[in-house]
Each structure stands twice: as C-alpha cells, then as structure tokens.
Amino acid sequence: MVKTLAFIGFGGFLGSITRYLISRYFQLHLAALFPWGTFVVNLAGCFLLGVVYSLSEKGNLLSPELRLFLAVGFCGGFTTFSTFSHDALMLAQQQEWLRFSLYASLSFFLGLAAVFAGKIVIQLLWP
After folding, report:
1. Whether 76 contacts 12, CB under 8 Å
2. C-alpha distances in angstroms, 8 versus 69, 77, 123?
3. pLDDT score at 120
4. Contacts of 30 (CB under 8 A, 6+ apart)
5. Predicted confidence (pLDDT) per residue in 33-62, tens digit
6. 3-class DSSP assignment, residue 115
7. How open is the CA angle 53-55-57, to the nearest 5 degrees?
8. What SS3 string covers 4-59?
9. Per-residue b or e along 28-57, where b marks 16 or more CB atoms closer than 10 Å to that residue's CB
10. pLDDT at site 20
11. How confident is the model at residue 126 (pLDDT cuts 50, 70, 90)?
C-alpha cells in the first residue's frame, strides 16, 4: 500500500509542477481575457488520461503501478477541476457571459473529445 501511495504521490507532484509551468507560460504570453493555461492543461490531461486507460486495456503495456502513477497521480495533479471552477466563476462575476459560456462548454465537450481521441490514437497504433 505504501508503494502504491508513493507512485500516486510522486505522479501528483510531477503533474502539479507541470500544470503550474504550463499555466504560467500562458499567463506570461497571452492576454488574461481567457484562462488559456487551465483550458489547455485540462484538455491535454484528458487526452493523456484517454491514452493511459486505453493502453491499460491493451493488456500488459502498462504495469498497474505505472497506470496509477500516470492516471491517478500525474493526471490527477496535472488537471484541476477546482481551478477550472474558479476561472469560470471569475468570468461569470465579471459578467463575461460569452467567455464564461465558451470556457465552460468547450472545457466540458472538448475534454470528453480529448479522452475519446486518446483512446482512438491507441486503438489505431495498437489494433
């Protein structure tokens, strides 16, 4: 159990740092009118989660420890529903209704599409 928690914890550590660096990059290079950092990170994390679970379904391509490290740890630390919710609330409080609607709906629907795309990529690469 301790070994499992260590895999998850280290994955979360790396995922959180990666999220921060990517979000910071977008904050520094794009106008703050839209929460691009969180948006991109969440879509990339959804895609990666689709890849990880699809690889897991292919048999022994991923060990159970690596799956936990990547899916629960890294993706769990990398993506962030709480930051998404905060960003959406800030847009709503600023009465940026178009940006709010785009951000919330695109995050949800493109997130689903990204998980699906990750699964499709693996199915195409490993039929």
Report:
1. yes
2. 5, 9, 26
3. 94
4. 36
5. 888 988 999 999 999 988 998 888 887 788
6. helix
7. 70
8. HHHHHHHHHHHHHHHHHHHHHHHHHHCCCCCCHHHHHHHHHHHHHHHHHHHHHHCC
9. eeeeeebbbbbbebbbbbbbbbbbbbbbbe
10. 95
11. confident
Integer Cα distance of 123 and 107 in angstroms: 24
Beta-carbon neighbour count of residue 91 at 10 Å? 21
Structure-block tokens of residue 77: 């630390």
**How far is the C-alpha of 14 from the C-alpha of 82, rounded, in Å?**
18
Centroid of chain to Cα 105: 16
CB 36 within 8 A of CB 106: no
How many angstroms separate the CA atoms of 69 and 84, rounded?
23
Distance CA 42, CA 26 (A): 13
